[in-house]
Model the fold of this input.
Amino acid sequence: MLVDAVLRDGADLAIARIPNGGGPSGFGMVESAARWGIRRLTGARMERPLSGQRALRREVLDRVGGLAPGFGVEAALTVDALRAGFRVVEVPCDVQHARTGRDLRGFLHRARQGLDLIASLLPRVAGAKRRSA
Done:
């Protein structure tokens, strides 16, 4: 499905929109922050911005100049691709996601995600401010 969106449907970056099944594993704060950051930086509304299941054209990687480290990679790649003018789409995919629980281990995982997300988006916010000045 993802590859078809790139090879046949003209997308440059296709992101799996995974069903929200099984109830919440956290409180949705990191995913909401990713949605907000992408919308604020690009105007695009993404439903599942942290999905790591993606297909993309090589040109996207060549143009964006690398990937952000850690758990910030997905949101940063989406922002960079959209800012570079690439067509980014979300594709419904019926896949399962390994979920973390509402326990200490799960909360520590989401804390790392949140810190990586902030670390990957802050330079893009600063870059946007420099470009508009």
Observations:
- Strands lie at 13-17, 54-56, 88-92.
